[in-house]
């Protein structure tokens, strides 16, 4: 029986399997990091919106804060959306109110060449922060 070359074939199959496992780990890690970064960006955006005095200032602060948070964590999104619920600014001073921020990010995965992996994943997170009931506010 001629077994010549069978070790080479076995090595190539093993190397291919190892490379696929590594690529899957890289993709899973990138998705996990992106999810955590989007959650942190939503938290930061809601906090920055809650210390604003006006609804328009809250929207601007939240947008800038979310962008800064994502970039400081090394997450590059192909598209970022920040939605801020500023209904709490119309409540009278002395009554409890909240502001919430929702951050959405599309994370590209095209550079991770894994069979069956989508070209990008979409991550969304929301966070709510209370407004100071005795701080002046304008809608």
What is the element layout, followed by pairings?
Elements: H1 6-50, H2 55-72, E1 79-85, E2 97-108, E3 120-131
Helix pairs in contact: 1-2
In short:
With 139 residues, this protein is an alpha+beta fold. 45% of the residues lie in helices and 22% in strands. Strands 1-2-3 form a three-stranded antiparallel β-sheet.
Q: Any idea what the CATH architecture is?
A: 2-Layer Sandwich
Total separate domains? 1
* Biggest sheet details: 3 strands, antiparallel
- What average pLDDT do the residues reach? 86
Shape: rod-shaped
Q: How many helical stretches?
A: 2
CATH first level:
Alpha Beta
CATH fold description:
Pantoate--beta-alanine Ligase, Chain: A,domain 2
Ranges where pLDDT stays below 50 over 5 or more residues in a row are none
**Count of distinct strands:** 3
Percentage beta strand: 15-25%
Strand order within the widest beta sheet: 1-2-3
Category from helices, strands and their pairing: alpha+beta
Instruction: Please give the alpha-carbon distance between the first and last residues.
Output: 86 Å
Fraction of residues in H or I helices:
40-55%
Order of helices and strands: HHEEE
Alpha-carbon Rg, integer: 23 Å
